[in-house]
Structure formats: structure tokens, C-alpha cells
Amino acid sequence: MYVKNVNGSGRFSAPSGYSSWLEYWKEKSGESVYFCSASSCLGTDLVGAHVQKAYGEDESWYIVPLGKSCKNRTDTFNVTATLVPVPSNL
To answer: How many Cβ atoms are within 10 Å of 41's Cβ, its own excluded?
Structure first.
């Protein structure tokens, strides 16, 4: 799935009951992650990053595990992990 990072989303805290967006992603996806989900990146300094699908009309926000450097990318890139929707109450 091709995505782009959401600019300025760092101001939003993880939902109540979760210590981080990465923990939220793990709980909601039911998956484990050890490396950045951006294709061809093996970063291990993971965070739960806010992204949007790059193509199509879906403007929803999603969480996906990315390395800290990929979290700051400004291009469109492919991720291999499940996209978890951000709660609509943000």
C-alpha cells in the first residue's frame, strides 16, 4: 500500500489506555513488528506513524509502524504492514 505521512500529526496523543501509537497499532492489528514497515527499510527505532493512503479518495488517517527516519519522509512510499484506522474522535 502506498502512503504518505501526515504532516503535523505529532500533536495528537495516543488514545486513552495506550502508552503510544505503536502500542495502539500492535493491539488493533494483532501483529508484532520488529522492523520499519517501509519497503526496503530495516530500521528498528519504531514509532506508530500517522499516514494517509497516497492514491484514491480515502483521506482517512491510519497508524503504521515506521522507523523514526521514515516517519519524517515527505515522499510517497510503500508499506507492508496493516494500516490501522486512527479513532475518529481526534
So the answer is: 17
Secondary-structure percent of the chain, ordered helix, strand, coil, rounded to 5: 20, 25, 55
In one-letter notation, the amino acid at residue 62 is Y
Residue 89: what pLDDT?
A: 63
Closest alpha carbon to 63 in 55, 41, 31 = 31
Give per-residue pLDDT as tens, 9-56: 888 899 999 999 999 999 999 999 999 999 989 999 999 999 999 999
Q: Give me the half-sphere count of Cα atoms (radius 13 Å) on the Cβ side of residue 28.
A: 22
For 71, other C-beta atoms within 10 Å of its C-beta total 22
Q: Which DSSP helix (H) or strand (E) runs through 64?
A: strand 62-67
